[in-house]
Amino acid sequence: MSKKLIAGNWKMNGSLATNQALLQGIRGGLKAPACDIAVCVPAAYLAQCQGLLAGSPVDLGAQDVSQHEAGAYTGETSVAMLKEFGVRYAIVGHSERRQYHGETDAVVAAKAQQALAGGVTPIVCVGETLAEREAGRTEEVVKRQLAAVIHLNGHCISEIVVAYEPVWAIGTGKTASPEQAQQVHAVLRAQLKAATPQAERIKLLYGGSMNAANAAQLLSQPDIDGGLIGGASLKAPDFLTIIAAAG
Ligand code: PGA
To answer: How far is CA 64 from each of CA 89, 209, 221, rounded to the nearest angstrom?
Structure first.
C-alpha cells in the first residue's frame, strides 16, 4: 500500500499573517512524516505559500482549476498558472463548488482532464447529500459522480485522487462513522477495480469533519487512504495530530 495522503482544504480562509503562522507551525511540528501532506490554499495566496513551503515535505494544492486552457474566462485560474507556483494537487468538484457554482459531473470531468493534461493531480470529490442518504441513494450518487471521471481521454484513472465527502458531514461536526465511510469507500474501490488493474494505487480520501480526535479510527479502515481536512487544517496542532495518525 502506498503512503496515505493528508490534504488540508483551507477554503476561503486565511490572510498573509495567519498563513505564515499556520505554515510555520506545521513545518516546525513535523517529525519525519510517514504520509504525503498537502495544503490546498486560496489562489490569491499560492505565491506566498509556495515560498513558505519551499524545502518542506508539504506539497502545495489549489482548490479549483479552470476547465479551459486560457482566454476569456474572467475570474478563472488555468492549470498552467497553477504549475508556475509549484502546485501539485487541485481539488476538483468539491461539494461547495457543485452546490454554489453549479458544477455538473461533466464540468468536474473537464476540470479533472485539464488538471491531468497540465501535470496537476486532481483530487476529485464525490459525496451524497443528507436527503440522498436518507432516500437510500448514497451508492447510486457516488458511483455516478465517480463514473464521470473514470474514463478521461488519454489518462489513466490511477493518476487521480478521489475524496469521499458526504455533504452532510462537511463543516457540521457530524462525521461519518468509520464503518459508514469504509462502506462507501469499498463501493468506490470496487468501481475503480472494474475500470483499472491499478485500483489499489488510487488514493481514496475521506473528508467531512475529520479532526484530531477521530482521524486515527477513520484512517485505520482498509479502504481509507487519507483525509481531506477543512476546519481542522486551519489549526497547526490539530493538523499535525491528523498527520501523525496517518503514519
Ligand atoms: P471539514 O471540511 O473538515 O471542515 O468538514 C472538509 C471539506 O470540505 O473538504
So the answer is: 9, 20, 28
